[in-house]
Prior knowledge:
The complex is a heterodimer of chains A (277) and B (249).
Chain A: E1 2-11, E2 14-24, E3 29-33, H1 40-47, E4 55-60, E5 63-64, H2 70-79, E6 80-83, H3 95-100, H4 109-117, H5 123-135, H6 151-164, E7 169-172, H7 181-198, E8 201-206, H8 209-215, E9 218-223, E10 226-231, H9 238-245, H10 249-270, H11 272-276
Parallel strand pairs in A: 3-8, 3-9, 6-7, 7-8
Antiparallel strand pairs in A: 1-2, 1-4, 4-5, 9-10
Helix pairs in contact in A: 5-6, 6-7
Chain B: H1 2-11, H2 16-33, H3 42-74, H4 82-96, H5 100-111, H6 115-139, H7 143-152, H8 156-190, H9 199-207, H10 211-240
Region (Disordered) (chain A): 256-277
InterPro entries (chain A): AAA+_ATPase, ABC_transporter-like_ATP-bd, ABC_transporter-like_CS, ABC_transpr_PhnC, MetN_ABC_transporter-like
Pfam families (chain A): ABC_tran
Amino acid sequence: MLELRGLTRRFGAVTAVNDVSLTIPDGQMVGVIGRSGAGKSTLLRMVNRLTEPSAGQVLYGGRDITALRGAELRRWRTDCAMIFQQFNLVQRLDVLTNVLVGRLNHRPGVMGTVTSLLKMFTATERAMALQALDRFDLAEVALQRADTLSGGQQQRVAICRALLQQPRLMLADEPIASLDPRNAKTVMDALRQVNREDGITVLTNLHHLNTARQYCDRIVAMQAGRVMFDGTPAELTSARVQEIYGVTEDEFEEQAQEAVNPAARQSQTAKPGLALA
Amino acid sequence: MLGWFAFLFWWFQITPIRLWNGLSGLGTIVVLMIPPSPGALWLDILKGIAESVAMAFLGTFIAAVIAVPLGFLGAGNVVVNTLAHFSIRRVFDGFRGVDQLIWALAYVRAVGLGPLAGVLAIATADIAVLAKLYAEAIETAERKQAEGIDAVGGNKLLRTRFGLLPQVLPIMIAQALYFLESNTRSASVLGIVGAGGIGLAIAERIRIRAWDEVAFIIILMLVTVAIIDQISARIRRKLIGGRDTLAPR
Lengths: 277, 249
C-alpha cells in the first residue's frame, strides 16, 4: 500500500503540490488528471524522489520512503519503476541493452558493477529481456538502436525496461502525451496488461479524461496542486468536471491537449519516425 | 594607434630595406627549392615522417584516454560541487597556457632526446584542452537519458556509464581525431628541439642549406597531413552522422 501524507512541494513562491494525501492499495490502476501546472508531474516524481518533497511523507508498506538515503533510495527506485513522457531511453544503445538497464540495481557487488559497466549481462538476464520484449511484440527490433524506433515502440521498450526492474509499483508521467492515438492505445494497453497480469500498482498522469476513464480503476483530479476529486471513473461525471475546473469537459480536454502538445510537436520534428508510425 | 605601430616598427627596427632584403632572401630560398629532391638519405626522411605520425598518434591517444575521466570530473552535471568543479576547470586552464614546444623542451631534459619526449609533450599539452572540451560536451548532454538511469535505481557510476557516455563518446572521439590532425602537423616541429620525428631532418637540412631536400620533406608532410585529415574526417562523419544526439528534443 502506497500512502502519501500531506505531500507538498514548493518551487520558490509557487506551491506545485499542496498538502496531498492519498492511499493507494496494491494492484490498483490510478489515473491522475489535471491541467498543465496542476502538479501531477511533481506529485509523481516525489514518489520516487526524483523531486524532493518540501513537506509531507511518502510511505510504502508502512516504510517511510522520504527518509531513505543512498543505496536504500536506489533500492526503492528499482521497486517503483518510472515511465517518462519522452521515454528517456539511451538513444545510442540497442533496444536489448536498454531493457537490460532495468537490471542494473539487481547486480550486487563489485563484480556486478564491473560487468554492468562492460554491458556484460548473463544469459538469464538476456532471456528475461527478450521475453519482456516479445510480450509487447518488440522482439524483432531487439538489436536496433533505440533512436530508430517510433515513439510508441520506444515507450513500450521503456515499459519492458521497467518490468525488468521487477517493480511493485509503476509510475507513468504522461506516458502517451507524445504519441499519436494509435500508439497511445498500444502503450495504455501495455500499462493495463502490466497492472492486470503482473499485479503491479500503476499510477499514471493523463491529460485525456476519456483515457483515464477507460483504463483506470480510480481517478484523482488535481487543480493548483490540490486533489479536488478522488473516486471511480463513474463518479467523475461531466457535471463534476465542470464543478472542479469551471469549464466543460470538451474545453478541459482542449486545454490539456494544448499544454502537452508543444512537447509532442517537438519530439515529432526530432524523430520523423514518430509521425510515420 | 598609428603612434603605437610606429613605435613597434622602431622597436623591431623594421625598415623597408630590411623587408626588401628579406623578401629577396626568401625568393632565393624558393628558387633553391626547385626542383625538390629526396637526396641520398630519403629513407631517413620517410622514417622521420613515420615517426612524427606515430608520435602524434600515441600522444593524442594517451591524452584522449586520460582526458575522459578528467572531463567527467570537470563537468558541472557530474561533479555537482561548484567549488570542486570550478577548481578543476581552472587547473585545465592553467595547463592549457603552456605550449607543446615548452613541454617538449622540458621533457627532452627529463627523459632525453627522442620520440618519447615528443609523445609526452603532445600528451601533456592536449590532456587539459581535451578534458575541457569533453567536460563541455558532457554538460550539453541530454538530461533525460541520465534521469532514466536514476529512475532505474542506478548509482552515479552507472548513470555516467549509461546515461551520459553513449551520448558523448562519439563527440569525444571526433574531437580527439581533430587533435590527431593538428598534432601530425605540430609533431614535425618538435624534432627541432630534439623531441623526435621529422623536425630534426628539416633542421639539419636547413643548416646545410639543402633547400631542395627541405622542399621535398615539406611536400611529403603536406601529403601525409592531407591523408590523415581525409581519414579522420571520414571517421568523424560516420560517428556523428546526420543524426545529432545533442539536439534538443
